[in-house]
Amino acid sequence: MKLYSGVTYWDKKQSSYESHLSLADNIKTKILIVGGGMSGNLAAYILSKRGHQVVVVDKDKLGSGSSTANTGMLQYSSDMMLTEFIQSIGEKKAVLFYQMCLEAMKDLTSLNYDLDYDGDYILRDSIYYASQKDDVNNLIHEYESLKKHGFPVEFLEQEQLEKEYDINKGAALKTWFDAEVNPYKFIQAIVQKNKSRGVTYFENTNILLDEIKSGSAITSQGHTIIFDQIILATGYAKIYECIKDKAQIERTYAFSATTSSNQPWKDDVMIWETRRPYLYFRTAKDHRIIAGGEDEYISNVEEDQDVIFEKTEKIRKQIEQVFPHLKLNITHRWNALFGTSKDGLPFIGKDPKLKNRYYLLGYEGNGTCYSMAGANILADLIEGKTNPYSDVVAINR
Questions:
Q1: Exposure check for the chain: N or C terminus, fewer CB within 10 A?
Q2: Is the entire prediction scored with pTM above 0.90?
Q3: Cβ neighbours for 41, distance < 8 A, ≥ 6 positions apart
Q4: Is position 379 within any domain?
Q5: Going by C-beta distance under 8 Å and a sequence separation of 6 or more, which residues neighbour residue 95?
Q6: Is 307 within 8 Å of 298 (Cβ atoms)?
Q7: Residues 116 and 130 in one domain
Q8: What CATH number did the domain enclosing 372 receive?
Q9: What are residue 100's phi and psi, to 5 degrees?
Q10: Residues 290 and 347 in one domain
Q11: How many CB atoms lie within 10 A of CB 305?
Q12: Domain carrying residue 105
């Protein structure tokens, strides 16, 4: 499955990274991770830190899948508000899920400090504004719920929002412990740290996913990998049998643009809104704006460059409506697939039928945060430990 189309930014910005050999022999490992994107590398980081022997394989280049098209906005808030989760899955599980995400953001920040190379990871506040007046009451209820359960949040009324951030909307929530990142560069930095801990990588090594057995996997080149445990961190490339009735694939559009302003808005906060599908945008180095939106319930990428242009121009105009002083020059335009679930939760945990098979699938709009949480959950499950969040995101929930 093709995961994105158009001209992406992160991989064009970076010089070439170290390549890794493809598997050319039969091997044995304690833990096999299939997928060398953000999810797979975060899992390898946690497992190797705990002393496990890990092999990571990717069918292409490391970080060349969905991570290349990721806009790099990392937040503890989910696409579904805490109040919405409380209504759908109950208060206990909803609060646990949001606590999981906040903890994951703190873990990502700690991980960043542990890296030897810069992944452009920068702590940021987020502004979540009411797209229309009718949404203000929803934000008030969300603020009260977040505050009640100890989450970092501030309610900004219209006057304060306009005065501090020059955003003329009815209200907004301000959250912190969020971050922006260059996902492609961040992955490469994690890879280097993982290799220093003994993780082995193979690129251009395609595992036949439908032929995985209880203790072995075979590549399309005919080589066998014997393992004790396997983690499938394959992103949106395949919807597995155990989640096929709970998941679907959608499409989003994004761009990278230059602007003449050294600081387009206060504190370089990351900005998104209550409307669905929502507009989301952030700053990046070199006075750039990274933005996305116009999500569609379509499971294949858009190849028509005219459509990509039209959709990204619409996003640009929406940003310029929020900040009329900004004039954006779009240099890179693309669209990408992402996974969603019926209940708004990612799929993380043990296969319901196979005891040594695990899934790390960061479906929904906050995949990097979910994958960080999932890396810890899976490490605990593999080690026979209990994890307070495992039932919330379990495959058989």
A1: N
A2: yes
A3: 56, 62, 63, 187, 190, 191, 194
A4: yes
A5: 82, 86, 149
A6: no
A7: no
A8: 3.50.50.60
A9: -60, -45
A10: no
A11: 12
A12: 25-122+180-245+343-396
Q: How buried is 85 (Cβ within 10 angstroms: 0-12 exposed, 13-18 middle, 19+ buried)? A: buried
Q: How many residues does the chain have?
A: 397
**Pairing status of strand 54-57 against strand 200-202:** parallel
Q: At what angle do helices 91-114 and 82-89 cross, to 10 degrees?
A: 130
In a domain, 19, yes or no: no
One domain, residues 33 and 163:
no
Question: Per-residue pLDDT for the chain (397 aa), expressed as one digit of tens each?
Answer: 899 999 999 999 876 688 999 999 999 999 999 999 999 999 999 999 999 999 999 999 999 999 999 999 999 999 999 999 999 999 999 999 999 999 999 999 999 999 999 999 999 999 999 999 999 999 999 999 999 999 999 999 999 999 999 999 999 999 999 999 999 999 999 999 999 999 999 999 999 999 999 999 999 999 999 999 999 999 999 999 999 999 999 999 999 999 988 889 999 999 999 999 999 999 998 889 999 999 999 999 999 999 999 999 999 999 999 999 999 999 999 999 999 999 999 999 999 999 999 999 999 989 999 999 999 999 999 999 999 999 999 999 9
Question: Is residue 274 located within the same domain as residue 145?
Answer: yes
Which residue's structure tokens are 């740290």? 193
- Is 314 within 8 Å of 294 (Cβ atoms)? yes
d(CA 106, CA 177): 7
Among 298, 316, 341, residue at a domain's last position: 341
State how far Cα 5 lies from the chain centre: 18
- What domain count does the chain have? 2
* Cα 358–Cα 46–Cα 341 angle in degrees, nearest 5: 45
Q: Does residue 18 lie in a domain region?
A: no
Q: How many other C-beta atoms can be found within 10 angstroms of the C-beta atom of residue 134? A: 10
- In what helix (H) or strand (E) does residue 296 lie, and over which residues does it extend? strand 288-296
Q: Tell me the two tokens of residue 125.
A: 């506040």
Is 374 in the same domain as 331?
no
Domain check: are 132 and 227 in the same one?
A: no
Supply the CATH number for residue 307's domain: 3.30.9.10
